[in-house]
Each structure stands twice: as structure tokens, then as C-alpha cells.
Amino acid sequence: MTGRKILTTKKLFPGLFLLAFLLFFPFACPAADDKTLLKAAELVASGKGSATDEALLFMENRRLNHLAMEGKVSGGAYQKLQRAYDRKNREIAAMAAKDAGFSTAESKGGKTYRPGTDTDAQLRGNDLTAADVENSRKAYNKRVENYLRDSGLTVHKKTNWAARTETDIMPSPGQMKSSQEFAKAAAYINGDGGNMYVSPLAAEAQGKLDGGDAVSLVEGQAFTEEMKSKVAKMKKDKAALMERYRASENSGERRPGGGNPESGIPRGKIHRQDQPAGKEHPEFCRTRRK
What we know:
The chain is mainly alpha-helical. The radius of gyration is 19 Å and the shape is globular. α2 runs parallel beside α11 (about 215-245), α3 (about 30-45) packs across α6 (about 75-100) and α7 (about 130-150) packs parallel to α9 (about 180-190). The strands form two sheets. Strands 1-6-5 form a three-stranded mixed β-sheet. It has a three-stranded mixed β-sheet with strand order 2-3-4. The chain has helices at about 10, 15-25, 30-45, 50-60, 60-70, 75-100, 130-150, 160-165, 180-190, 200-210, 215-245, and strands spanning about 5-10, 105, 120-125, 165-170, 215, 285-290.
């Protein structure tokens, strides 16, 4: 295959996927809270779950991923649950983009899900602005809130669900009105708890990888460099989160019966504060020389 080079993740960035998850491996938490989630997971995976069970798993998907990493969710059940989550999440993201006057690109199906990965939905439109990206993200938050409420959960208004579910409706640089608008959009999403690529080349690479397309060598390099900087940031974030966890050691946040109205879990159930995971890194990316 002349002119084409295969780069594995080991060559792009050794151990990146594993490192991202180890950095944010969950702290121990009371079993009662996990039992509630694991019971819902068992019911939904077996096809016996209610709409409320499904909504609870959607809302607490990040913690469910942590439990899977601990070996408390079987591989088969995990794949079923993540397929359902991904399908629902992308459906909500698509409706949110439509609310803002745009659309999202279809994601390549048939993938194997890994604990800790986030969701990137590619926003589609012409001459997109940072305001368009912001409107889509806000519409997503509202859509998630309505879905959870309609499913029987109690949630706070104006919760940043995009950050909590680690879902970014991101624009392609080529569809933005200008490079300045792309930079503004990245600053907005990243400042709002998101994880958008700052480099246009890295963003283009992610879009191509999502669609199963080959990326250029320069795009692959930009993608790798940005992932390195994200891991460095995750190290700093982990230190801050550990300090905050120690400070809350005797707070109601970790005490049985304390509850958390924003979580949708009744009093008597414990909501553990979760940590952000790294972005999904594919098994490999194909690059081609320009």
C-alpha cells in the first residue's frame, strides 16, 4: 500500500487510553448507591427495566462506566447498556442541533464501547458561528432535562448536562464562518466543562475517524499532540479533585441519607461526585501522506 502508513495508538501515544482512565479511577463509595444503579443496569440489560431505570442509567452513565471498570458489570451487559445510551444520547444531540437550526453527522455504527469514553456529535451547517454552537449545547441541556423529568426523575433546572454526560456537539472547522469563530466555539465549550479540540487539524482528524475515513499525516500529528496536552491537564484536574474529595470527607455529600436533589436519586441513596474521563481514542487511525 504505497503512500499510506498505518499508525497504531501505541505509536500515536503509548498507553493514552489506559492512562486517561487510571487518572480518574473512581474513589470508593457507599454500596447502597451502587446497588441502586447496578440493579437498574441488570433490569435494563435483561429487557425488564422501566423508563425510569433507563433514564437513571442515562443520567449516571459516567458512574456506570466506573463500575464496569471495577468488573461489576459484565462485558455483554455493558455493551447492551452503552448501545442504548449512545443511541439515546445521539438522538437527543440531533434534536438539539435541529432546535438550533442545524443537524448532526451520523456516527459510524457497530463499534465496541469502552468504559470511560465520551460522546462527540459533529454539528453540520454552513457558516457556523460560536453562537450557533452555544445554542446547540444549551438546547441539548434542555432536551436532557425534559427527557429525565418525563421519565420520572427529579432534576434541577439549568443543570449542565452536556458536561455531566461528557457530550460535545462540536463543529467541523471547514463549516465554521471563520477560524476566529472556531476558536471562540472551542473556548466556549472548553470553558463550559466540555472537551473540544482547539486545533482545527485535530478536530478534522476526529471527524474523519468518527466516520471511518483516513486522515492525513499532519492531521494525525495534530491529533496526537492535542491528546498529549489533554492528558497533562487531566493530571492537574485529578490532583484538584483528590483534594476536594478529602475536604468533603465528612460532608453530607458522602454521608448515607444525605442525598442530592440534582442527581435524581431519592434521599437515602448516595450520589457520588464523579470525575471527567478522557476522550475516546480509537484502536488505530489510518493516515495518508499529502
